[in-house]
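Per reviewer request, we include the raw input and output of the structure prediction for the construct analysed in the revised manuscript.
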Amino acid sequence: MQQIIDRRLAGKNKSIGNRERFLRRHKEQIKEAVKRAIDGRSISDVERGEDVHIPKRDLNEPVFGHGQGGIRDMVHPGNREYVQGDRIARPKGGQGGGSGQGQASDSGEGEDDFVFSLSKEEFMQVFFDDLALPNLQRTQISEMPEWKSQRAGFSSDGTPNNLHVVRSMRGSLGRRIALGAGSRAELREAEDELQGLLDSAAPEETVARADRLAHIKALQQRVTDLRARLQRIPFLDPIDLRFRNRVRVQVPTSKAVMFCVMDISGSMDESRKDLSKRFFILLYLFLTRHYDKIDLVFIRHHTQAQEVDEENFFHARETGGTVVSSALVLMEEIIRERYNPQEWNIYGAQASDGDNWHHDSGRCRELLSEKLLPLVRYFAYVQVAEEEQNLWQEYTQLQEGHRHFAMRKAVTADQIYPVFRDLFKKEGAKAA
């Protein structure tokens, strides 16, 4: 009977199946941990992994127990009290020696919760699991091309560090087979003829025997010459060498800047700011999958706009009236000073409840149409209030003439993800 022994080393992901089953089993606890982590993280730190705590009581494994009655034979090591035939009474209820999982004993001892770490990929998988997002690669946003060198087949010249050994040896073998094919065929024929003469009986006539010996000597010389000819074929020739070839191709640029513009007037309470933060987080994750370098510019405004860091952007207590145009003017100034549209992909995202000084909304529409939209790749406006006020009505006029401008409303947390998916869906795809 044949036996097959697998001597392959176990891979580093040999327990990946067990880990995935564990994640499915404790999905709810993990989702809660991810949700808590997202609420307490910054935008740029959202993709980091996370330590998940699961109570010990939730990790109990099912076990088989023995029913009442029946006869059981067992051996108790170290038994000094019983002999064969003695009957052992069952322990009374409540007197078993439980381990007290998850609870502290009278001595102050107990067991900690089970803690394990989610990797970056697992964290993002759980984060997007309940978002029902499509493939974020499918987008109508255009990207500025830049030149980059990449592999493109092989060439017959190049530097030694680009030498492809396998291709070169393959070319050497083919050349030696082609050049020596005729000589090898002649060599086989000469060897077969020589072997036939050596195996046949020698003729009795002296003249015939002399001719036979002369013919054998000639064949032996022929075999020697052919073998020498084959040996003179070089094992490796310069024409056999193959080098990895590289060409310059156009690839998407790796630089992008995202402007986060948020209204912090008196009508923007904490719940609306939280909706804005969730949308900005999704937009940041979307852009990091397209670009290696992402700059974040945070602009908040009430009657005046200012550029701030993320902490002040979401948690500053300053408030006041509402003049949205001040933020758009500041955004244009920053673009002109620091971000050349020929070198940077510029994106804008604005979150507001739509409340604005009446005479300022028309100016906001003009600033977007004439100043900002010609500079940006995409601009998204999200209103975190249901009522459509004058700012919403002015922005609605921009949608027909500017395809890279979009606007949606998100009033509750569960609407953020469908709104984001709708904003960045591929052109021609069905709406969610």
